[in-house]
Amino acid sequence: xDHGTWPLREEDEGTHPVGVEPLWSESVYLDFTTQDGxxxxxxxLGLYPNWNRAWYWACLVGRDRPTVLVVDNxxxxxxxxxxxxxxxxxxxxxxTRPMSSFKLTLDAQAAVVLDDPxxxxxxxxxxxxxxxxxDLEWKTVxxxxxxxxxPRYEIPCEVAGVIRVGGEEIPFSGHGERDHSWGERxxxxxxxxxxxxRLDDGTFFHGMRANAGFEMPWPCFTVSPGxxxxxxxxxxxxxxxxxxxxxVRSRLAVPGAPLTAVPVSFAPVAMTSPDGAIAHFPRAxxxxxxxxxxxxxxxxxxxxxxxxxxxxxx
Length: 314
Prior knowledge:
There is one protein chain. This protein has strands at 24-33, 39-48, 53-62, 67-75, 84-86, 89-97, 101-114, 129-140, 145-146, 152-165, 168-184, 192-199, 204-210, 219-223, 232-233, 236-241, 247-254, 257-266, 269-272, 278-281, 284-290, 295-303. It has a single domain (22-310), classed as AttH-like domain (AttH-like fold), CATH 2.40.370.10. A nine-stranded antiparallel beta sheet has the order 15-14-13-12-22-21-18-17-16, with no helix packed on it. The protein contains no helices and 22 strands. It comes from Streptosporangium lutulentum. Residues 187-306 form the DUF7064 domain. InterPro entries: DUF7064.
């Protein structure tokens, strides 16, 4: 598939040659939620070979549940199989069929439990802990969406498997999105919003825009049940934030499906640059309300580098 400056191939499901940029990275995201938003979570594995580390994040949230987090921003770099083993956890990430299915496992014995998600921005060393295990599979629904201007693709999915937290075992069935990107990414320079979800009629959607100081056809898509995903652009957004910096709501102008995103449960992360700058990443399970009456759940992130309030957020 050729959608602009780069061709997407099945081989792109694997890892890529490392660029020379100090902050060159390769990233895999996998998120999930039940249709009613009662259980949700996400995993991110980011490789930073020129910085000699990986970032590994995993979380579980849900209705009337605390935020459960595994955050390791000094994880050892995995091999091509993307199996990660850090202090108190191990995880696997496997493309079982290119562009069609992906399996993930996590076995963490000391995930932190946060009644106040804002604690994730501070030292969580004193927080209580619990075990967290994922055994989940993402299966593609409707096709693959490559961005037109950078090497990155998004895949709407059905998600199923088993989650274990503490002594609780949760059979899981729901939906989510997985994405894969590679190239230079400076988390301490540009703010952005990324969002994806599924409405109650089975329609998946996605949109992303960065506050880069210029306008362009920002990527987005919708895909209805039984249809193939089409390449769309033209995503716009306005957001409201509280004094603490956490988002209150965003209005997402997905072409053909204008939505309001309201955070339900946060699973935030803080990141420190090589020179000590700190960025905040309040990613959240959201409830989406479409103007035509449809609703659903999914994930939204509002990336906040230093000085983000002056980056064009409205």
